Amino acid sequence: MERARFGQQKDIKPWDKILSPLMAFGSLLISLVAGLDIRFGWSPGFGLPVQLIALFIILAGTAFGTWALLENRFFSAMVRIQTDRGQQVVSTGPYRWMRHPGYVGTFFFFMAMPFFLNSVWALLPAALLLIAGIIRTSLEDRTLQDELEGYREYAQRVRYRLVPGIW
């Protein structure tokens, strides 16, 4: 039920009222720019082999993000502490290695889409979405550390937010 109530909750973080819809409509933005690029011939494209590799990355990112969603019953499109649902820290599945695996899947999807859609110009909104997502990850992680019981200890055990060994 939580996942179906996008934006209807009362305790959504103010910054997420902007970042969450931006991330949610990210693939539409990338597709729009790619469509304009193809329509007006702004860039030469990448070719079939690159498109096939990008398709594989899109599928892998989707699968990884879905694994995170299935593993975490508190996974939500909007950042809020779900006290009404008894939210707890999840440390199984991909959460053993990184604290925000859902974002990792989304980032792979966003970054591979321009290549799959054969549009150099679509890399621009993809990069902007990646930056917005990194900002959102940081803000969400800070919220969880400040407000979710047990998350600080989890963050000490699982040190990396997105990329094991890096960040």
Key descriptive features of the protein:
Four Helix Bundle (Hemerythrin (Met), subunit A); 57% helix; single chain; 0% strand; mainly alpha; 167 residues
Structural commentary:
By secondary structure, the chain is mostly helical. It has a single domain, classed as Up-down Bundle (Four Helix Bundle (Hemerythrin (Met), subunit A)), CATH 1.20.120. Helix 2 runs antiparallel to helix 5. The protein is elongated, with a radius of gyration of 17 Å.
Produce a short descriptive summary:
The protein is mostly helical and 167 residues long. 57% of the residues lie in helices and 0% in strands. The chain has one domain: Four Helix Bundle (Hemerythrin (Met), subunit A) (Up-down Bundle), CATH 1.20.120.1630.
**What structural class do helix, strand and pairing data support?**
mainly alpha
Overall geometry comes to elongated
**How would you name the oligomeric state of the polypeptide chains in this document?**
single chain
Q: Examine the coordinates and then state which fold CATH places here, giving the name of the CATH topology.
A: Four Helix Bundle (Hemerythrin (Met), subunit A)
**Radius of gyration, CA atoms, in whole angstroms:** 17 Å
The termini sit apart by 32 Å
Q: Report the helical percentage.
A: 55-70%
CATH C-level class = Mainly Alpha
**Order of helical and strand elements:** HHHHHH
Number of helical elements: 6
Per DSSP E runs of 2 or more residues, the count of β-strands stands at 0
The domain tally reads 1
Task: Show unreliable segments.
Answer: none
Strand count, sense and barrel status of the largest sheet are: none
Mean pLDDT comes to 90
